[in-house]
Every structure is written in structure tokens, then in C-alpha cells.
TrEMBL record:
<dbReference type="InterPro" id="IPR036374">
    <property type="entry name" value="OxRdtase_Mopterin-bd_sf"/>
</dbReference>
<feature type="domain" description="Oxidoreductase molybdopterin-binding">
    <location>
        <begin position="91"/>
        <end position="223"/>
    </location>
</feature>
<dbReference type="InterPro" id="IPR000572">
    <property type="entry name" value="OxRdtase_Mopterin-bd_dom"/>
</dbReference>
<protein>
    <submittedName>
        <fullName>Molybdopterin-binding protein</fullName>
    </submittedName>
</protein>
<dbReference type="Pfam" id="PF00174">
    <property type="entry name" value="Oxidored_molyb"/>
</dbReference>
Length: 251
């Protein structure tokens, strides 16, 4: 079942969700991690050579969903700005799509629901060592980027979020291969209910071929850029910059 735009308008986004969880160990490959840190260009080349980036992540049946979906990362941004958006049932929330685009966009939840919707039941693998299966719904990120009109030179999409780390907004990035992957969506629904706050309300990224820390929550902005050099410390994401996580967390 795909939740309709009318349901979004009528239901609001303050509703909870049927939550999930499960527990698998995420396998790490230290040698591969070292190789993937050997420069951006070599990193991309190795990714293409070792991993089929166009392959689909496995999808599951409704019966295979986990009974509880635990939050990863921030549980509640807790800022005055976010609290005001939540108090207003996110009616004033907008996702800004900007940077190297021909037509910058400012999208409300109803605008996201007006795009063709994709619903998918996939497994979330967290770097902390747990996993869970859930159903997500939202427009394909690629469709939104097409509506904005990507300019020549754009190579990455940088996501800026409402939660704060070290006094600055959380940020993450993916390249255009993942941005236009058919399973990469801007999810506003979890298990046929609006996203709860702890899972990233009102909208989060789902990039199903990567580990959970790449699935940025509390999205506020998606910016097309030519390089990651000016983003944070240049590694492309908060955890990459500060905890030496891999920029490409493919699974």
C-alpha cells in the first residue's frame, strides 16, 4: 500500500509509527577500509570496480518486517526551530534543493507527496551492529533532482539536517550514482505511518546500498556541489570528518 497525498494532508505528520528492530552484526573489512581512504578519485574508481553500484538492495515481504525499529543517531533535534516545526505538525517545514541546479526548490511535505511515490521494504544495517527491516515511502531523490535541473559539474548531493553536532547542523553526502539509484528516496513514511521524531521526522534520506549513518535524518537542505572540499573538513560527512568513518559505506 502506498500512502496517498490526501492522507498526508488530512493526517498530519505528528502520528507515531509501528516501530521495528532486529540484530545482525555488520561485517567490517579493515583492509578494504584502508584502501578506500587513499584519495577521492581512487576511492571512486575502487567503488566502481569492486561494487555494482546499480544493483538493487534486497527487498522483503510485509511479514518479514521487524517488530521494532530503533533510532540511530539523534532521537530528537531539540532545537527551538525544530520544536516550532513539530508543534505546527511540520506544516511550515520546507526542504530546500539548491546549489548547482537550474531551478532551486522549496518543497513542503505535500509537494514531496505529489511526486510519484516509491514504497520499499528494506533492511537497515547500522554501524553499531544492529539491523532491522522496515517499509519506507517517499519520492525518488532522482525525480526531485530532475525537477530542480542538475547543472553540469554537479557531482555530489550534500544534505544538511536539523539536528546539531558540536554546535553545527549535521551533514552527510552521496554521489550522483547513489542519488539517482532507484531505491534512494526521501522518506516521509515508515510502515505506512508518518515518520516519528526519533526516526527522522518529517523526512529522511534512504540510500539502501549503504550503512545507516549515510541515511541522514531531519532533512532541511539538499545541495548539489562539484566537490566535497568545502564541506566540513572535506571528507563529506560529520562522522567521516570526525570519527574516520568511510565516506562510501556500501553493503
Amino acid at each position: 500500500m502506498i500512502v496517498g497525498r490526501r492522507d498526508l494532508i488530512a493526517g498530519g505528520v505528528a502520528g507515531g509509527a509501528t516501530l521495528l528492530a532486529g540484530c545482525d552484526r555488520v561485517i567490517e573489512h579493515p583492509a578494504a577500509r584502508r584502501i578506500l581512504f587513499m584519495g577521492e578519485d581512487m576511492q571512486r574508481g575502487l567503488q566502481r570496480a569492486l561494487v555494482d553500484r546499480n544493483a538493487l538492495a534486497p527487498e522483503f515481504t510485509p511479514e518479514q518486517r521487524s517488530p521494532f525499529f530503533r533510532p540511530n543517531g539523534t532521537r530528537d533535534p531539540g532545537t527551538p526551530e525544530y520544536d516550532a516545526l513539530r508543534e505546527g505538525r511540520f506544516a511550515e517545514w520546507r526542504l530546500q534543493v539548491d546549489g548547482l541546479v537550474a531551478r532551486p526548490l522549496s518543497l513542503a511535505l505535500t509537494d514531496l507527496a505529489a511526486f510519484p511515490q516509491r514504497a520499499q521494504i528494506t533492511r537497515h544495517d547500522c554501524v553499531e551492529g544492529w539491523s532491522a527491516i522496515a517499509k519506507w515511502q517517499g519520492p525518488k531523490l532522482g525525480d526531485v533532482l530532475k525537477a530542480a535541473g542538475m547543472r553540469d559539474g554537479a557531482r555530489y548531493i550534500v544534505f544538511t539536517c536539523a539536528d546539531m553536532y558540536g554546535g553545527a547542523p549535521y551533514y552527510e553526502s552521496i554521489d550522483l550514482v547513489d542519488a539517482f539509484h532507484p531505491q534512494t528516496i526521501l522518506a516521509w513514511a515508515l510502515n505506512d505511518r508518518f515518520l516519528p521524531v526519533m526516526n527522522g521526522a518529517p523526512c529522511r534520506l534512504r540510500v539502501e546500498r549503504q550503512l545507516g549513518y549515510k541515511h541522514a535524518k531531519y532533512l532541511m537542505r539538499a545541495t548539489a556541489v562539484a566537490s566535497l572540499a568545502g564541506i566540513g573538513k572535506g571528507r563529506g560527512g560529520y562522522w567521516e570528518d570526525n570519527v574516520d568513518y568511510d565516506w562510501y559505506a556500501g553493503i
